[in-house]
């Protein structure tokens, strides 16, 4: 016995959200979290903000455990229609942080080397121009 997966367009997902039903999309899967609102550890407001939307980016913003991903299965009611599907690329924020940190380190290195060098040159010019001439 095979179970067919229900297919919903993003418009259908939006239309189902009438204040009584809370649906949204995460990674092209459609979820009905109406009965999960009170259980959500982050509060129901976070879920309500995503009602009727593709909530993938918001979901990925928080570090969800494998247990959370597993628990989500019971709220999955279908898949997003092919024409509404989006490929989501997860951005590794740690890599961004490390790159920014490397840039700051290069800037500090340059400022620690360049500034003293120019101060030394300026001191030499002042010394030769004003002290040695007397």
What does the model show?
The protein has 134 residues and is α+β, with helices and mostly antiparallel strands. The chain has helices spanning 10-16, 44-49, 56-61, 66-72, 93-131; strands at 7-8, 23-26, 29-32, 76-80. A 4-stranded mixed beta sheet has the order 1-4-3-2. The radius of gyration is 28 Å and the shape is rod-shaped. The termini are far apart.
- Secondary structure: helix percent: 40-55%
> What oligomeric state is this?
single chain
β-sheet strand percentage: 5-15%
| Low-confidence segments | none
- Order the strands across the largest sheet as they lie in space: 1-4-3-2
Beta strand count: 4
Order of SSEs, N→C? Answer: EHEEHHHEH
Which class best fits the helix and strand makeup? alpha+beta
Tally of individual helices: 5
Shape: rod-shaped
Kindly provide the radius of gyration, computed on alpha-carbon positions and rounded to a whole number of angstroms.
Answer: 28 Å
User: How far apart, in Å, are the first and last alpha carbons?
Assistant: 104 Å
Main beta sheet strand tally, sense and closure: 4 strands, mixed
User: Roughly what is the average pLDDT, rounded to an integer?
Assistant: 83
Features:
134 residues; alpha+beta; rod-shaped; single chain; 5 helices
Show the helix and strand layout.
Layout (H helix, E strand, L loop, with lengths): L6 E2 L1 H7 L6 E4 L2 E4 L11 H6 L6 H6 L4 H7 L3 E5 L12 H39 L3
Parallel strand pairs: 1-4
Antiparallel strand pairs: 2-3, 3-4
């Amino acid at each position: 016995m095979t179970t067919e997966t229900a297919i919903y367009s993003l418009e259908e997902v939006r239309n189902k959200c009438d204040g009584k039903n809370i649906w949204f999309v995460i990674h092209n899967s459609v979820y009905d979290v109406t009965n999960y609102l009170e259980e959500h550890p982050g509060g129901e407001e976070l879920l309500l903000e995503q009602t009727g939307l593709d909530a993938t980016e918001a979901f990925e913003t928080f570090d969800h455990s494998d247990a959370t991903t597993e628990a989500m299965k019971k709220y999955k009611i279908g898949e997003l229609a092919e024409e509404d599907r989006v490929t989501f690329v997860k951005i590794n924020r740690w890599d961004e942080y490390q790159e920014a940190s490397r840039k700051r380190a290069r800037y500090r290195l340059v400022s620690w080397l360049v500034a003293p060098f120019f101060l030394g040159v300026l001191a030499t010019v002042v010394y030769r121009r004003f002290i040695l001439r007397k």
